[in-house]
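Supplementary Note 2. Why include the ligand at all?

Several targets in our set were suspected to adopt different conformations when bound, so apo predictions alone were not considered sufficient. For every target with a known small-molecule partner we therefore ran a joint prediction. The input for copper (II) ion is given below.
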Amino acid sequence: MNRCFLTATCLATAVTVLVNVQEPSANTQILQTPLPGKNIPKFADPMPVFGPASGGTAPRVQAGAGYSVTAEEFQQKVLPAIQYAALPVPFNAGTYVWGYKVGAAPALYPGFTVEAQRGTPVNVTYVNNLQQADGSPPILQKYITVDQTIHWADPTGNMGSFAAYAGPVPTSTHLHGGEVSSFYDGGPGQWFTPNGLQGAAYATFAPTEPGSAIYHYPNTQEATTLWFHDHALGATRTNVYSGLAAFYLLRDAFDTGVPGTGLNLPAGAQELEMVIQDRLFDTNGQLLFPDLGLNPATHPFWIPEFFGDTIVVNGKSWPFQTVAPQRYRLRLLNGSNARFYNLSFDNKMVFYQIGTDGGLLDAPVPLTSLLIAPGERADVIVDFAAFPNSNILLTNNAKAPFPNGAPADPQTVGQIMQFRVGNPLPAGMTDTSINPAIAGVTLRGGINQPPAIVRLVNPLAGVPNVTPSIKRQLTLKEVMGMAGPLEVLVNNTKWSGKRANDSSVIPGSQFLYGDGMMQDTYATELPRVGDTEQWEIINLTADAHPIHLHLVQFQLINRQPFQAGKYGKDWSKLFPGGIFIPGYGPPLDYLTPNLDGAIGGNPAVTPYLQGKASPPLANEAGWKDTVVMYPGEVSRILVRWAPTGSPATGAGAPAAGTNQFVFDPTAGPGYVWHCHIIDHEDNEMMRPYRPQL
Ligand SMILES: [Cu+2]
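The joint prediction is reproduced in token form.
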């Protein structure tokens, strides 16, 4: 393998990348020739499926009282199998990927789906075995470069080095959307390596053996589509790109996964989880992760957003899926680094969203297209009954970056996968599953249905039903370098940001969250347990960001356009010296309310608002843990630090300082909130937060 270090080819590639920011395709460690996505045959191999749909070959892993998950490197034929036949050893055995070995099942990318039952807590042992047999780092480390100049896990204490990282791989496994104690959240500081190096936050619970951790999931929240993925500080984008992601389906008496029971949702072979990701490949069929930084003098390898030209669903490029002409439940997950998808079917058929990140909607929402951002899940029902013996394409037309970037190429990322609808159902055999197309059909609030969604927000009016005790106005801001973004910041505050003599540095805000340098991090978002807060996120960047909070599901209040340019200009003048200071924190004192009565250290946004606030779309009007926040808009969310089922008002409604979780959310290393464009999250677009009593 050729090392590429300041060779003529390398430099030539570098120039190409600089002039074509949207589609960089160089890896600086190994010389790789990109395999254009349009050259990869589509719909050649079936989509890998789990559970009954696999015909018994790939059963979902039952969580039971406990199971184990081991992260490993292995080879998998992500491209059509035929593509590998002509490749030399060792590439003919498949693409090197990292995946999860769940329970006794073999390692897989994505890892096997875990199926857990509401009310049955589980203990999960996570093991990091991302190493070769002789203990040396895995092969993919040369293909997917960790940048040591960003604030990252840094197991070997080389932060700031311009060399590609070559030490043991840090992993931290987060259950996305999980209502979990922060001891077991798998946050960015809870990483550990195969040889027992660990982040500062790892040490806050009793470790088992070096290179592993035991987490406890109470599974008390509503049944929904969760997923677990890697979250190591500054290495999330590389670890997830390598393959570390899998589904965690939480079931209950209504969403059973068994046909003809509970809500009678399509189940068994008619329930398919699907994680959609974009990837780049080289001519050896290996993953290619462009690593030539836009501002190489600052960050040699980090790029602001990864966009691949090849779509991979459940670990297979542009697969097909054979279906019967009946209803299917698709549990969609956008597991991409940065790419948004706006999905529709090429026959323009209507489909129905039945659930969001945090559980079922009250009633099915008819859609002809569905926007899904990185980290988001959408639970949908698609009825193929009217289309026997036909092929239906699932397409995407979201621009990248979203919403103002390059259009999706209809020949590549404009296509997701193909459904091959078979013969009509045999006479006498009918689809008896719930029909979302019937007027008035509900999923919650009816007889033999789960209770209606507790409405913290009136989604039709786009106003809170619960008076928030605290309003925060917080910014999203890109810090530009000579050739592009240097980093992206939440409230202009770095991950470890703090300011001397700032009133936001208050007792209790100091975090165990550390990196290899054991640097302390201070939280500025310190909500009280049981309290309800309104967060207004002021997007000063040119792109949409999917903002994700750990621990809680929240509700979107509304979104409203504002004069971003004018606000940005006036905001900048408030910094010392009258000019914007990257990473300074907000320009004003965090805890002093502005004219909108909002804390956060930013000037009131109300004078800059223009136009009406838009309430959530019908398919966003449920429990969300990740919400799209558009450029030029203020996105308002209502967040309550209590379980979703707690009443909004009256008897049993949570009060500030009262904990209704089954664990103490104030204990442990704390939580984070961040952008789920993982390339952003890895470079400062993440902040710790810690609930207080
Ligand atoms: Cu972002």
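The pocket of copper (II) ion is lined by residues 488, 545, 675, 677, 680, 685 (CB under 6 Å). The longest strand covers residues 66-76. Comparable summaries for the other entries are listed in the accompanying table.
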